[in-house]
Amino acid sequence: MTPITVVEGRRLALSNLDKVLYPATGTTKGEVLHYYAATAADVMLAHLRDRPLSFLRYPDGPEGLRFFTKNPPPGTPDWVRTAPVPRRDEPEARQVLVQDLPSLMWAANLVVEFHTHQWRQDTPAVADRLVFDLDPGPPASIVECCAVALWLRERLAADGLSAYGKTSGSKGLHLLVPLEPSPSDDVTAYAKALAVEAHGAQPELAVYRMTRALRPGKVFVDFSQNAAAKTTAAPYTLRAKGSPAVSAPVTWDEIEACGAPSELVFLAGDMEGRIAAHGDLLAPLNDPRRAHPLPAG
Protein backbone atom coordinates (compact mmCIF):
# COMPACT_ATOMS: atom_id res chain seq x y z
CA MET A 1 0.00 0.00 0.00
CA THR A 2 1.29 3.46 -0.91
CA PRO A 3 1.71 5.59 2.23
CA ILE A 4 -0.39 8.73 2.43
CA THR A 5 1.28 11.69 4.07
CA VAL A 6 -0.35 15.02 4.91
CA VAL A 7 1.97 17.97 4.27
CA GLU A 8 0.60 21.35 5.33
CA GLY A 9 -2.93 20.09 4.75
CA ARG A 10 -2.24 18.45 1.37
CA ARG A 11 -2.54 14.67 1.02
CA LEU A 12 0.41 13.11 -0.79
CA ALA A 13 0.88 9.51 -1.86
CA LEU A 14 4.61 8.86 -1.45
CA SER A 15 5.59 5.70 -3.31
CA ASN A 16 8.46 3.18 -3.26
CA LEU A 17 10.24 4.74 -0.29
CA ASP A 18 12.63 1.76 0.08
CA LYS A 19 13.69 1.83 -3.56
CA VAL A 20 17.44 2.39 -3.93
CA LEU A 21 17.95 5.30 -6.31
CA TYR A 22 21.72 5.73 -5.88
CA PRO A 23 23.34 2.26 -5.70
CA ALA A 24 26.84 3.67 -5.09
CA THR A 25 25.73 5.04 -1.73
CA GLY A 26 22.64 2.91 -1.11
CA THR A 27 20.53 6.06 -0.97
CA THR A 28 16.82 5.27 -1.07
CA LYS A 29 13.94 7.29 -2.37
CA GLY A 30 12.79 7.83 1.21
CA GLU A 31 16.15 9.39 2.02
CA VAL A 32 15.89 11.62 -1.05
CA LEU A 33 12.48 12.84 0.10
CA HIS A 34 13.85 13.40 3.60
CA TYR A 35 16.65 15.53 2.15
CA TYR A 36 14.15 17.81 0.40
CA ALA A 37 11.72 17.99 3.32
CA ALA A 38 14.06 18.28 6.28
CA THR A 39 17.29 19.74 4.89
CA ALA A 40 16.72 21.73 1.71
CA ALA A 41 13.14 23.02 1.75
CA ASP A 42 13.62 26.28 3.65
CA VAL A 43 16.53 27.49 1.53
CA MET A 44 15.52 25.88 -1.76
CA LEU A 45 11.98 27.20 -1.98
CA ALA A 46 13.22 30.79 -2.16
CA HIS A 47 14.98 29.89 -5.43
CA LEU A 48 12.04 27.94 -6.90
CA ARG A 49 9.10 30.15 -5.97
CA ASP A 50 7.43 31.92 -8.92
CA ARG A 51 9.86 30.39 -11.44
CA PRO A 52 8.34 28.00 -13.99
CA LEU A 53 10.11 24.65 -13.71
CA SER A 54 11.38 21.98 -16.03
CA PHE A 55 12.11 18.52 -14.68
CA LEU A 56 14.70 15.93 -15.57
CA ARG A 57 13.00 12.79 -14.34
CA TYR A 58 14.90 9.65 -13.34
CA PRO A 59 12.34 7.46 -11.54
CA ASP A 60 14.57 4.36 -11.54
CA GLY A 61 17.73 6.16 -10.53
CA PRO A 62 20.49 7.76 -12.60
CA GLU A 63 21.27 4.49 -14.38
CA GLY A 64 17.68 4.02 -15.52
CA LEU A 65 15.48 5.87 -17.98
CA ARG A 66 15.94 9.66 -17.85
CA PHE A 67 13.73 12.14 -19.65
CA PHE A 68 13.28 15.91 -19.67
CA THR A 69 9.82 17.41 -19.38
CA LYS A 70 8.55 20.97 -19.37
CA ASN A 71 4.81 20.31 -19.33
CA PRO A 72 3.02 19.42 -16.08
CA PRO A 73 3.23 15.62 -15.70
CA PRO A 74 0.07 13.54 -16.06
CA GLY A 75 -1.75 13.35 -12.74
CA THR A 76 -0.52 16.72 -11.47
CA PRO A 77 -2.84 17.63 -8.56
CA ASP A 78 -5.14 20.56 -9.15
CA TRP A 79 -3.63 22.36 -6.13
CA VAL A 80 -0.18 22.47 -7.76
CA ARG A 81 0.05 25.84 -9.46
CA THR A 82 1.14 26.23 -13.06
CA ALA A 83 2.04 29.25 -15.17
CA PRO A 84 1.65 29.96 -18.90
CA VAL A 85 4.96 29.62 -20.74
CA PRO A 86 4.01 29.95 -24.42
CA ARG A 87 6.27 28.18 -26.90
CA ARG A 88 6.27 28.44 -30.66
CA ASP A 89 5.00 24.90 -31.04
CA GLU A 90 2.69 25.11 -27.99
CA PRO A 91 1.10 28.55 -27.57
CA GLU A 92 -1.01 27.27 -24.64
CA ALA A 93 1.91 25.58 -22.83
CA ARG A 94 2.17 25.77 -19.05
CA GLN A 95 4.86 24.76 -16.58
CA VAL A 96 4.76 23.80 -12.92
CA LEU A 97 5.40 26.27 -10.11
CA VAL A 98 6.77 24.92 -6.82
CA GLN A 99 5.54 27.48 -4.31
CA ASP A 100 5.48 25.61 -1.02
CA LEU A 101 6.47 22.44 0.81
CA PRO A 102 3.57 20.29 -0.45
CA SER A 103 4.34 21.05 -4.11
CA LEU A 104 8.07 20.52 -3.47
CA MET A 105 7.39 17.10 -1.99
CA TRP A 106 4.93 16.19 -4.75
CA ALA A 107 7.60 16.97 -7.35
CA ALA A 108 10.39 15.24 -5.38
CA ASN A 109 8.24 12.10 -5.22
CA LEU A 110 8.42 11.98 -9.03
CA VAL A 111 12.25 11.79 -8.65
CA VAL A 112 13.38 14.84 -10.56
CA GLU A 113 16.14 17.37 -11.01
CA PHE A 114 14.67 20.85 -10.59
CA HIS A 115 15.55 23.33 -13.37
CA THR A 116 14.47 26.99 -13.34
CA HIS A 117 14.29 29.87 -15.77
CA GLN A 118 16.19 33.07 -14.98
CA TRP A 119 12.88 34.99 -14.87
CA ARG A 120 9.72 34.87 -12.78
CA GLN A 121 6.29 33.86 -13.98
CA ASP A 122 4.85 37.39 -13.78
CA THR A 123 7.62 38.81 -16.04
CA PRO A 124 8.32 36.22 -18.76
CA ALA A 125 11.60 36.71 -20.64
CA VAL A 126 12.62 39.51 -18.24
CA ALA A 127 15.50 38.09 -16.21
CA ASP A 128 16.40 39.03 -12.65
CA ARG A 129 19.58 36.99 -12.66
CA LEU A 130 22.43 36.17 -15.01
CA VAL A 131 24.07 32.75 -15.13
CA PHE A 132 27.31 31.30 -16.45
CA ASP A 133 27.57 27.51 -16.64
CA LEU A 134 31.28 26.69 -16.51
CA ASP A 135 31.63 23.24 -18.06
CA PRO A 136 35.07 21.55 -18.09
CA GLY A 137 36.24 19.45 -21.02
CA PRO A 138 38.37 16.54 -19.71
CA PRO A 139 41.10 16.42 -18.57
CA ALA A 140 40.05 19.85 -17.22
CA SER A 141 37.89 19.70 -14.09
CA ILE A 142 36.15 22.00 -11.66
CA VAL A 143 39.63 23.19 -10.61
CA GLU A 144 39.99 24.94 -13.98
CA CYS A 145 36.39 26.15 -13.69
CA CYS A 146 37.36 27.91 -10.47
CA ALA A 147 40.18 29.74 -12.24
CA VAL A 148 37.78 31.00 -14.90
CA ALA A 149 35.23 31.89 -12.22
CA LEU A 150 37.75 34.09 -10.44
CA TRP A 151 38.44 35.99 -13.66
CA LEU A 152 34.71 36.42 -14.30
CA ARG A 153 34.12 37.63 -10.73
CA GLU A 154 36.64 40.44 -11.24
CA ARG A 155 35.28 41.31 -14.67
CA LEU A 156 31.71 41.45 -13.38
CA ALA A 157 32.84 43.56 -10.40
CA ALA A 158 34.34 46.07 -12.85
CA ASP A 159 30.80 46.53 -14.17
CA GLY A 160 29.36 46.88 -10.67
CA LEU A 161 27.95 43.34 -10.51
CA SER A 162 28.38 40.73 -7.75
CA ALA A 163 28.65 37.03 -8.55
CA TYR A 164 27.83 34.02 -6.38
CA GLY A 165 28.90 30.45 -7.02
CA LYS A 166 27.47 26.97 -6.74
CA THR A 167 28.60 23.61 -7.95
CA SER A 168 26.64 22.25 -10.87
CA GLY A 169 26.32 18.96 -8.99
CA SER A 170 28.05 17.37 -11.96
CA LYS A 171 31.52 18.36 -13.21
CA GLY A 172 31.35 22.13 -13.30
CA LEU A 173 30.49 25.37 -11.60
CA HIS A 174 27.68 27.89 -11.96
CA LEU A 175 28.05 31.63 -11.41
CA LEU A 176 24.90 33.64 -10.72
CA VAL A 177 24.46 37.41 -10.64
CA PRO A 178 21.40 39.27 -9.26
CA LEU A 179 20.09 41.84 -11.72
CA GLU A 180 17.47 44.50 -11.88
CA PRO A 181 14.89 43.03 -14.30
CA SER A 182 16.28 43.09 -17.85
CA PRO A 183 15.17 41.55 -21.15
CA SER A 184 16.57 38.04 -21.49
CA ASP A 185 17.96 38.85 -24.94
CA ASP A 186 19.99 41.71 -23.48
CA VAL A 187 21.28 39.55 -20.63
CA THR A 188 22.30 36.86 -23.11
CA ALA A 189 24.16 39.39 -25.25
CA TYR A 190 26.03 40.78 -22.24
CA ALA A 191 26.92 37.30 -20.98
CA LYS A 192 28.18 36.32 -24.44
CA ALA A 193 30.38 39.40 -24.59
CA LEU A 194 31.97 38.46 -21.26
CA ALA A 195 32.44 34.85 -22.39
CA VAL A 196 34.27 36.13 -25.46
CA GLU A 197 36.41 38.37 -23.21
CA ALA A 198 37.20 35.40 -20.95
CA HIS A 199 38.48 33.48 -23.96
CA GLY A 200 40.58 36.46 -25.03
CA ALA A 201 42.07 36.86 -21.55
CA GLN A 202 42.65 33.14 -20.94
CA PRO A 203 42.80 31.44 -24.36
CA GLU A 204 44.61 28.45 -22.90
CA LEU A 205 41.82 27.92 -20.38
CA ALA A 206 38.45 29.26 -21.59
CA VAL A 207 36.34 28.79 -24.72
CA TYR A 208 33.00 30.35 -25.56
CA ARG A 209 32.05 28.27 -28.60
CA MET A 210 30.11 25.06 -28.05
CA THR A 211 32.13 23.12 -30.68
CA ARG A 212 33.22 19.88 -29.00
CA ALA A 213 36.58 19.82 -30.78
CA LEU A 214 37.58 23.07 -29.05
CA ARG A 215 36.78 21.95 -25.53
CA PRO A 216 39.22 19.19 -24.39
CA GLY A 217 41.28 20.52 -21.50
CA LYS A 218 39.40 23.82 -21.40
CA VAL A 219 36.38 25.36 -19.71
CA PHE A 220 33.34 26.10 -21.85
CA VAL A 221 31.85 29.40 -20.65
CA ASP A 222 28.24 28.65 -21.48
CA PHE A 223 26.24 31.89 -21.62
CA SER A 224 23.29 30.38 -23.50
CA GLN A 225 21.25 29.50 -20.39
CA ASN A 226 20.31 33.17 -20.11
CA ALA A 227 18.01 32.74 -23.12
CA ALA A 228 14.37 33.03 -22.12
CA ALA A 229 13.57 29.45 -23.17
CA LYS A 230 16.48 27.87 -21.27
CA THR A 231 16.65 26.57 -17.71
CA THR A 232 19.47 25.82 -15.28
CA ALA A 233 19.75 23.30 -12.44
CA ALA A 234 18.30 24.98 -9.37
CA PRO A 235 20.26 25.58 -6.17
CA TYR A 236 20.10 22.59 -3.82
CA THR A 237 18.65 20.17 -6.38
CA LEU A 238 19.99 16.63 -6.37
CA ARG A 239 21.43 15.54 -9.70
CA ALA A 240 20.90 12.34 -11.66
CA LYS A 241 24.48 11.18 -11.18
CA GLY A 242 26.12 8.13 -9.67
CA SER A 243 25.85 9.55 -6.15
CA PRO A 244 23.33 11.98 -4.62
CA ALA A 245 25.37 15.06 -5.53
CA VAL A 246 23.84 18.46 -4.83
CA SER A 247 24.08 21.65 -6.85
CA ALA A 248 25.51 23.28 -3.76
CA PRO A 249 26.28 26.94 -3.05
CA VAL A 250 29.96 27.53 -2.28
CA THR A 251 31.98 30.39 -0.86
CA TRP A 252 34.55 32.36 -2.79
CA ASP A 253 37.15 31.16 -0.31
CA GLU A 254 36.32 27.58 -1.34
CA ILE A 255 36.55 28.51 -5.02
CA GLU A 256 39.91 30.23 -4.51
CA ALA A 257 41.33 27.31 -2.52
CA CYS A 258 40.09 24.48 -4.77
CA GLY A 259 43.00 22.23 -5.72
CA ALA A 260 41.21 18.97 -6.49
CA PRO A 261 37.76 18.09 -7.88
CA SER A 262 36.82 16.17 -4.73
CA GLU A 263 37.03 19.38 -2.68
CA LEU A 264 33.87 20.74 -4.30
CA VAL A 265 31.69 17.64 -4.31
CA PHE A 266 28.82 17.82 -1.85
CA LEU A 267 26.30 15.03 -1.29
CA ALA A 268 22.86 15.20 0.27
CA GLY A 269 24.29 14.15 3.63
CA ASP A 270 26.73 17.06 3.65
CA MET A 271 24.13 19.75 3.26
CA GLU A 272 22.60 19.95 6.74
CA GLY A 273 25.97 20.94 8.18
CA ARG A 274 26.75 23.36 5.36
CA ILE A 275 23.40 25.12 5.69
CA ALA A 276 23.81 25.31 9.47
CA ALA A 277 27.27 26.83 9.03
CA HIS A 278 26.61 29.21 6.14
CA GLY A 279 22.86 29.66 5.81
CA ASP A 280 21.85 30.22 2.21
CA LEU A 281 24.95 31.50 0.45
CA LEU A 282 22.77 32.43 -2.52
CA ALA A 283 20.27 34.50 -0.53
CA PRO A 284 21.51 37.72 -2.19
CA LEU A 285 20.00 36.50 -5.47
CA ASN A 286 16.56 37.04 -3.98
CA ASP A 287 17.33 40.37 -2.29
CA PRO A 288 16.35 43.34 -4.51
CA ARG A 289 18.88 45.49 -2.65
CA ARG A 290 21.68 43.35 -4.10
CA ALA A 291 20.43 43.66 -7.69
CA HIS A 292 22.17 46.07 -10.05
CA PRO A 293 21.28 47.22 -13.55
CA LEU A 294 22.64 45.33 -16.52
CA PRO A 295 25.55 47.35 -17.93
CA ALA A 296 24.74 49.17 -21.14
CA GLY A 297 26.17 48.10 -24.47
TrEMBL record:
This entry's Gene Ontology molecular function terms read: DNA ligase (ATP) activity
The EC number of this protein is 6.5.1.1
Keywords for this entry?
Ligase
Alphabetical list of CDD domains matching this protein: MtLigD_Pol_like
Query: Where does the record place a coiled coil?
Result: none
Which residue range or ranges hold the DNA ligase D polymerase domain? Answer: 28-281
**Per its UniProt record, what InterPro entries does this chain match?**
LigD_pol_dom, MtLigD_Pol-like, NHEJ_LigD
Pfam families, A to Z: LigD_Prim-Pol
The UniProt entry, under Gene3D superfamilies, shows: DNA primase, PRIM domain
Keyword Ligase listed? The answer is: yes
Protein name (record) = Bifunctional non-homologous end joining protein LigD
> What organism is the protein native to?
Streptomyces clavifer
